[in-house]
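Our consortium's second objective concerns turning raw sequence data into structural hypotheses that experimental partners can test. To show how far this objective has progressed, the report includes one record in full. It was chosen at random from the queue rather than selected for favorable results. The single chain below, 313 residues long, was entered without modification.
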Amino acid sequence: MPLLALPLILSSCGQRDKTPSQRTTHNILLGDISPVPRGRTQVAQVNGVPIFDDCVVRQAKSSELTAQDALQECIDFELLAQEAQSFVKDREVQERGKQELVRAFVTGTYPITSADDIPLEIVQKLWNLPAIRKRYQHPELRNIVFCRIPPATGDAAADSDETGQAFLQNIYEKLKDRTEISEEDLFGECYPHYKDAGIANLELNTFHLYPRTQYGDQFRAQVFDGPLTAGVVLPLLQSRYGWDLILLTDLRPELNRSFADAEKELRDALFTKPIYESWRNTSFDDWASPFEAKHDVQRFVERIPATPVLPGA
């Protein structure tokens, strides 16, 4: 069960999980497994308690599962319900039916019901991933986009270079007093007009949040030195690569947050973010899977129809 789903099921019985995912008990708790009075075929049993094909059909439809995975969800639910019989003593809860019984059992026994319950070693493992760590610890970063006119070749190279310089200089003069210039603004000035200006080649480039050390000497001074602001164009730059008109689009100051400072954010991400759903599912399954070994479970998979139809549909 995704950790985020636990508080949700307590307040919203009967909702469906609209995100297709691998089998989890979460889907069972949310799915409609109410008995259907006619047209039922037994496809499994847990300690003699029958499980019918209508449960499999409903789980497969509500959670977009295969018949095998849907059957396993129905079995898992029954296992939890039988485990709950000895755990939940509240007679009122017992009389509300299996869903309330299982809900009370999971709430009272599953060890991870909030972000604070996630084991420290799991959070530290996430922290140690390079892709995660660099969000909290990195040098000063700057993002630029630029229009480049490469050096000309041939007999008319000098004239061509002057033409390219003049073309970009005109764009700079047009934009230099503006702020909050976007990438589209700059490229919109460069790309549509360069051929009309007699320029053979034009390049549009982006440097995505590079640190100072990844910029060449001339670029480094132009991009990092001085009182710069994102959304402004920088004076024309000439290098061995040609003429460049640079727009600074993003500045990220140096960051050096500690694990203690980032821990709450990491816990919240593990507990709620869709990207970590597989970890939440695995965590719940690791907790719930030993229950099956304690019970007599029989499956009759061959009885599940190839194209099942919901009884009464």
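The partners drew two points from this record. The mean pLDDT is 81. Residues 5-116+274-303 form one domain. Both points have been shared with the crystallography group to help prioritize constructs.
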